[in-house]
Amino acid sequence: MVDYSKWDKLEVSSSGEEEEEGRGARPVVHRLDPAANEELRVGNLTVRSKRAGQGEEKPSTSEPSESACEISASAKGEDQLRALSRNGARCGSYLWSQDRTTCTLGVIVPRGSRASEVGVELSGFDYLGGTKRATCLSVVHRPSGTRVGGDLQCPCRAEDDDLLANWELKDLAGSTEKERVVLVELRKVSVADNVVVWWKRLFKGEDEPEVDINSIEDRVQGGGQSFAEVWNEAEKMFKEKLRKKS
């Protein structure tokens, strides 16, 4: 049986009352006046009174504003577009970029596009010193009728792994229409040691802007760099060596 007799000695006092000496062993309840904003300190513990309805501040759970989201998405989109046209150009429905060893074509396609709807093809094959090359590229998105392609400014490698179509389909960051982009990577053909060929255009013709290769971001000034003319000259020299050996 529970003994409740100890509660008979419970004393209730207001915060202004003082405990009488010698009653320290008896339990005492202190009532804090909410209107007085009182504090009660017990050792290292501090208890504060609160008015009705007063509570701790809660962390905000509100979502970012629509305008803030739009600005963030726009910034991400611009960053991706800049990356997709680095050392290259933006050309309407497609972009292209390049570094020392590769060129990458980015074809913009509608939202919801699937990889099974995309066709990527290299053609116009020839050989140079045992290296198989392609001179034409075609990218097609069948449902929308989007077609990008033509004769490449310079040949690209077309070995078996290249013919498997080194490409991917991903979302285009920041696109208000939720568009996607087909990225096709082309490996540049090296015609001589320490020669880097920077392409002025991805495709031959005047339909896309020409890149000023003298101001390319990734180009290191000095030896080992090349204009498009260097490509042609090196290729002619290589073919001449092969002709003399035959």
Automatic annotation (TrEMBL):
Alphabetical list of InterPro entries matching this protein: HSP20-like_chaperone
Region (Disordered): 1-74
The protein, known as: Putative HSP20-like chaperone
Record-linked SUPFAM superfamilies: HSP20-like chaperones (SSF49764)
Highest rank taxon of the organism: Eukaryota
Gene3D superfamilies documented for this protein: 2.60.40.790
Biased composition (Basic and acidic residues): 1-11, 30-41
